[in-house]
Structures are given as structure tokens and as C-alpha cells.
Amino acid sequence: MSFGINCLLANDLMTARAMAAELDDLNKARREIEQGMQQEAERVLTSLKFSEDNLPFAIALYQADWHQGVIGIVAGRLKEKFHRPSIVFAKADPDDKTNDEIKGSARSIPGLHIRDLLEHIDSQHPGVIRKFGGHAMAAGLSIAANDFEQFNRLFQQYAETWLSKESLTGTILSDGELEANLMNIEFAHYLRESGPWGQLFPEPMFDDEFVILQQRIVGEKHLKLVLEKSGVAFDAIAFNIDVKQWPNAKAKNAHVAYKLDINEFRGKQSVQLMVDHIKAV
């Protein structure tokens, strides 16, 4: 039984408080580790020299000193930044010099089922992949370090075959403009209860032009906004924003693609726009 469950089931208040304090310390330590991993991921991305002119169909990277704990984050960042299926590898056991296995974390884009692609490589080239598993958008796999170059060539080859030109454009599909009278807590609850959303049943996405009332960075790279439509103000947030472009003091209006969500703070609920894309207009 987990420590958190034990805290909830504690027999007395003093024990529960002590366990709650320990849980809080563990959570703070986890956030520090996560922040360090995020910084490492950003350094990896900065070191890459990809541009629109030399961008491959898929990205696979391996570095001997990378830590397994950061590869999923790096793969996700690569996928988000370059809109390409991405796999990042690290040593399976850095302390065992005789272990030649490396583990990869994969993230994909709409239009390419990453697990099916790995299965195809495995069936056509037995032995290159030792083991794999996952689903359409994320997967894990293990290969020998000496087989990385061969795997990378195969990954590139089949990704180019499987991906359409449309899949590489990073097109955002929108359900269109949401009327202001529907941008309320009741409709947000209705959408939330209509899930679960998935690969072939995506969460509704809306887009519209808003007046920017406020904009600021929170948490180092997240853009917090107050947007106005039809005289009504809405809180909005865009995660992992390009801080070189935002905040933009010159931008008075923006075209925003967003999901309607619910923000809960101190027991109160309010509508919040989860921004997928923002462009000054």
C-alpha cells in the first residue's frame, strides 16, 4: 500500500500530519529533480542544429551520458519543437560496463502509429529491436548500442514511407469559433464529461481572435494571459511557450487555438483556456 494511502488511513491526526509533511518534502524533491531534467532537456535541444532546410522525417538520438529519467522529456520536446516522431536513447544500466543495451523513449505525431512502426521494423529486420511496447503516440524499446546507427537508418526509412506530407505540416484541426455564451463553466463541465478523449476521438479544439488584456511569464516558460472576447475576459495559459516571442508588448490581438477547461483554485472553479497555439495579429 502506498505511503499516500497510509497517510489517508492514519489512525490519528498527529500521525497523519507527520506523514503529510513527509509527503510534501518528497513532492518538493520530485519537483526539483523534474526541474533539473527539464533544464537538461532544454540544453539538448539548444545543441541541435536542425532547421526547416535539413529537418529529417524522424529524429533518433543517443548519447552515452544521458540519463533514462530525462529521455521521455527530451523526446516530447523534440516532437513538440520539430513536429517529427522522435526517439531518445540512454544506457539501460550506466553502472554495468558489460551491458550493451540502450533504452529508448518514443513520442509520435498524428499520422504515424509509433508502436506499429516499431513492430514493422522488428518483423522486417529481426534482432535489431530486442523488445518494444506502447501505443499510437508513445512507446518504449530496447536495442544494442552498436545497433543504433542501423536502427536510425531504418527508422528514417520507414517514417519517410509511412508519413504523408500533410502529417508533417503540424496542422491544427479546429472545431471553429465557440460562441461567447458557451464559454462558461457549465459548458466546460459538459465537455469534460463527454470524454475520455483519445487518438481517434480528440478533445474539441476551438479557435478565435481575442484582445490581449494581460500577458506574463509564469514558471519560467509558461505564458499566462487574460483574453477578451465580446466584452468578456477569460484566463488562459500556454505551456512551454517560446520566450523569445512571448510576452509580446506590441501584440494587442491574437489568434488563439485553445481547449475549454476548468481551473480549480481554493475550492472555486472558473473557465480557463488551454492554449495550443497563439499568433499575434
Can you offer a commentary on this structure?
Helix 2 crosses helix 3 (68-82). The protein is α+β, with helices and mostly antiparallel strands and 281 residues long. The strands form 2 sheets. A 5-stranded mixed beta sheet has the order 1-2-3-5-4. The protein folds into 3 domains: 3-33, no CATH class; 48-168, Diaminopimelate Epimerase, Chain A, domain 1; 180-280, OB fold (Dihydrolipoamide Acetyltransferase, E2P), CATH 2.40.50.460. The N and C termini lie far apart (53 Å). It has helices at 3-8, 13-47, 68-82, 114-124, 148-162, 185-193; strands at 59-62, 86-91, 101-107, 131-134, 138-144, 206-218, 222-229, 232-238, 253-265, 268-280. A hairpin with a 3-residue loop joins strand 4 (131-134) and strand 5 (138-144).
Sequence-ordered SSE layout with sheet pairings:
Layout: H1 3-8, H2 13-47, E1 59-62, H3 68-82, E2 86-91, E3 101-107, H4 114-124, E4 131-134, E5 138-144, H5 148-162, H6 185-193, E6 206-218, E7 222-229, E8 232-238, E9 253-265, E10 268-280
Helix pairs in contact: 2-3
